[in-house]
Amino acid sequence: MQNAKDTFYEVLRERLAALNPDRTIVLRDLMRPGVLVEENELATDVATPDCFRLQWTKSAADVKGDLPMVTMQCEIAYETAGTAVNAGMDRGRMLAAMDGELLAILNEAPQKTTKMNYAGTALGKAAVVMKTNVWWGGLVFGQAEMKNDRVMRTATVEVMSYQEAGEQ
């Protein structure tokens, strides 16, 4: 499942960087596209605004075929306080812009990609191309909510992949 999660994350990062290169975050002194996976970051009580935060919440495996098919639910949370120039009074517009970006990067064709193994990249090795794909369904938007001076939303998407031999 980890390879499918990593691959989905990388696709979202690449697509967001192409769509809106200005949507970036700085974490641990590195600037990168505004997508992060919460389980891979240091724990904090403060949510990073103006970026998409991925959290894997549910998973199921169908073992009937030659390869088990894994379905995972990805929750994507995001929030904004608007812009300082507008004293935050554009929070709704900024949230709508993020809704549009998320919809665009998830609906961009194709809604699948070749699964990659990124395990060696921390050691300077290239990602390894795997034999199966990762694909995802439609995006379901949750209701917008107010949180202090920010407006936030959580959207969900089902991500699927076949579990290859030797994968964990």
TL;DR?
With 168 residues, the protein is of the alpha+beta class. The protein has helices at residues 2-19, 91-107, and strands spanning 24-27, 30-33, 35-37, 52-62, 69-80, 112-117, 128-136, 140-141, 145-147, 150-162.
Number of helices: 2
The overall number of domains is 1
Gross morphology is globular
Q: Which bin fits the share of residues in helices?
A: 10-25%
CATH architecture: 2-Layer Sandwich
Order of helices and strands: HEEEEEHEEEEE
Q: State the CATH class.
A: Alpha Beta
Which percent band covers the strand fraction? 35-45%
Mean pLDDT across all residues, rounded?
A: 91
Structural class: alpha+beta
Got a strand count?
Answer: 10
Integer-rounded radius of gyration: 17 Å
- Characterize the main sheet: 8 strands, mixed
Runs in which pLDDT lies below 50 for 5 or more consecutive residues are none
The CATH topology comes to STM4215-like
